[in-house]
């Protein structure tokens, strides 16, 4: 018996998958119990140069490949919504097991994929869709399934972490740090998906669904990017002994009536975190995710979050898992959405803020500003004034309060004559 694999896509990750399947063929056969063999590789162009990829395996007819009777497992690394969705659905309908790294598709329309897996008795594994080589989804999906996860918070986009790290350590501005990330290959020519938070939001949706057994889509994730983070923000964070990170934060919002909670909050935005926090020390393009569970306590997963070889490592792990299931006639875990907790709007999320205001340098300014915070029941933790005259600035750090109340306060401050400008607004994580 030999299990045959159809590969969709042969870019950076796909090429590494091919290499690993060929170089580690004997070890993989020993781990699975039967040999694994590439049946074909679907690509857009046959004339593109591909090192170490057998030309005879290449085809542009992806649909025929995934529905072939000669294929057992379909691996998708092409990304995007279509044709990936149609090909994976056709593969599962034809009885194939599926491995995908497609975070965008899972976050946008995971319900359709998981529904097809259930209907056709197929496996669908997707470890490589979040945090590259880091074993993260399987612990949430299987190892912690007996626990009660309260929170998942982490750095899940290497591009933005590299940019923010450079701004913090070298004093570079956003544009300069982005250019350096592009030169090193950490950022795409069009970095929108990364710097505007779309990539991290898709991953946050996947993490939240696994952690809280509740269906979450990308549309339910509050998203802010890092394009507006300035050198002044970085300096303000340093003054508080903090560092700025783009975090994906998924948390169960507690309820006095129900142990499961009254909902889940899922968001992606820049955050000031204390330098003492484990995530603060994550440098360059690395990823790290912090998980807080009732019995297991605090866990941290760290490693390379992107790149051909690291992502291919996660893909190979999934291939071995689904191959073993086929050999033994079993299936992996199905989608779990039994909790059906509502995804709460950002306005209901409890956060802290760091607010910098350019203000008129005269008496009574602090009292007037403090009144606006009090009007919205937002408690001020710390306040300091910097500069004088035209350079006068008021810096306020709040205690935790509903995000909607904080946002309303900031809008009211914009209307005050004594406030020349709201220079900076950023959320703060860590103890009050």
Automatic annotation (TrEMBL):
<dbReference type="InterPro" id="IPR016204">
    <property type="entry name" value="HDH"/>
</dbReference>
<comment type="pathway">
    <text>Amino-acid biosynthesis; L-threonine biosynthesis; L-threonine from L-aspartate: step 3/5.</text>
</comment>
<dbReference type="Pfam" id="PF00742">
    <property type="entry name" value="Homoserine_dh"/>
</dbReference>
<keyword id="KW-0521">NADP</keyword>
<protein>
    <recommendedName>
        <fullName>Homoserine dehydrogenase</fullName>
        <ecNumber>1.1.1.3</ecNumber>
    </recommendedName>
</protein>
<dbReference type="InterPro" id="IPR002912">
    <property type="entry name" value="ACT_dom"/>
</dbReference>
<keyword id="KW-0915">Sodium</keyword>
<comment type="pathway">
    <text>Amino-acid biosynthesis; L-methionine biosynthesis via de novo pathway; L-homoserine from L-aspartate: step 3/3.</text>
</comment>
<keyword id="KW-0560">Oxidoreductase</keyword>
<dbReference type="InterPro" id="IPR036291">
    <property type="entry name" value="NAD(P)-bd_dom_sf"/>
</dbReference>
<dbReference type="InterPro" id="IPR045865">
    <property type="entry name" value="ACT-like_dom_sf"/>
</dbReference>
<comment type="function">
    <text>Catalyzes the conversion of L-aspartate-beta-semialdehyde (L-Asa) to L-homoserine (L-Hse), the third step in the biosynthesis of threonine and methionine from aspartate.</text>
</comment>
<keyword id="KW-0028">Amino-acid biosynthesis</keyword>
<dbReference type="InterPro" id="IPR005106">
    <property type="entry name" value="Asp/hSer_DH_NAD-bd"/>
</dbReference>
<dbReference type="InterPro" id="IPR001342">
    <property type="entry name" value="HDH_cat"/>
</dbReference>
<keyword id="KW-0486">Methionine biosynthesis</keyword>
<feature type="domain" description="ACT">
    <location>
        <begin position="354"/>
        <end position="427"/>
    </location>
</feature>
<keyword id="KW-0791">Threonine biosynthesis</keyword>
<dbReference type="Pfam" id="PF03447">
    <property type="entry name" value="NAD_binding_3"/>
</dbReference>
<dbReference type="InterPro" id="IPR019811">
    <property type="entry name" value="HDH_CS"/>
</dbReference>
<dbReference type="Pfam" id="PF01842">
    <property type="entry name" value="ACT"/>
</dbReference>
<comment type="similarity">
    <text>Belongs to the homoserine dehydrogenase family.</text>
</comment>
């Amino acid at each position: 018996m030999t299990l045959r694999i159809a590969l969709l896509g042969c870019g950076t990750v796909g090429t590494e998958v091919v290499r690993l399947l060929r170089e580690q063929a004997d070890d993989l056969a020993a781990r699975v119990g039967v040999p694994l063999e590439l049946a074909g590789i679907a690509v857009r162009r046959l004339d593109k140069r591909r090192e170490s990829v057998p030309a005879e395996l290449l085809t542009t007819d992806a649909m025929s490949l995934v529905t072939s009777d000669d294929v057992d497992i379909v691996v998708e690394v092409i990304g995007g919504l279509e044709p990936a969705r149609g090909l994976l659905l056709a593969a599962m309908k034809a009885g194939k097991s599926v491995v995908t790294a497609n975070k965008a598709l899972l976050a946008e329309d995971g319900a359709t994929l998981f529904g097809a897996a259930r209907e056709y008795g197929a496996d669908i594994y997707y470890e490589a869709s979040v945090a590259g080589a880091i074993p993260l989804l399987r612990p949430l999906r299987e190892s912690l399934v007996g626990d009660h996860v309260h929170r998942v918070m982490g750095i899940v986009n290497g591009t933005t972490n590299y940019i923010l790290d450079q701004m913090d350590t070298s004093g570079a501005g956003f544009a300069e740090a982005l250019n350096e990330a592009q030169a090193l290959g950490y950022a795409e020519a069009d970095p929108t998906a990364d710097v505007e938070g779309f990539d991290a939001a898709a991953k946050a949706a996947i993490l939240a669904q696994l952690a809280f057994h509740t269906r979450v889509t990308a549309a339910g994730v509050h998203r802010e990017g890092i394009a507006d983070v300035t050198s002044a923000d970085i300096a303000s964070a340093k003054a508080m002994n903090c560092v700025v990170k783009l975090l994906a934060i998924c948390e169960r919002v507690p309820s006095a009536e129900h142990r499961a909670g009254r909902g889940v909050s899922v968001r992606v935005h820049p955050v000031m975190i204390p330098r003492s926090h484990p995530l603060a020390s994550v440098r360059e393009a690395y990823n790290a995710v912090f998980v807080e569970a009732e019995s297991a306590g605090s866990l941290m997963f760290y490693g390379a979050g992107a790149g051909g070889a690291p992502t291919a490592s996660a893909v190979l792990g999934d291939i071995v898992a689904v191959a073993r299931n086929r050999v033994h006639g079993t299936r992996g875990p199905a989608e779990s959405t039994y909790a059906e907790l509502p995804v709460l709007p950002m306005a209901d999320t409890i956060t802290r803020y760091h607010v910098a205001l350019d203000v008129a340098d005269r008496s009574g300014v602090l009292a007037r500003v403090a009144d606006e915070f009090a009007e919205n029941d937002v408690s001020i933790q710390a306040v300091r004034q910097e500069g004088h005259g035209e350079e006068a600035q008021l810096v306020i750090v709040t205690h935790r309060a509903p995000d909607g109340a904080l946002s309303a306060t900031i809008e009211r401050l914009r209307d005050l004559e004594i406030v020349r400008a709201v220079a900076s607004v950023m959320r703060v994580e860590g103890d009050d």
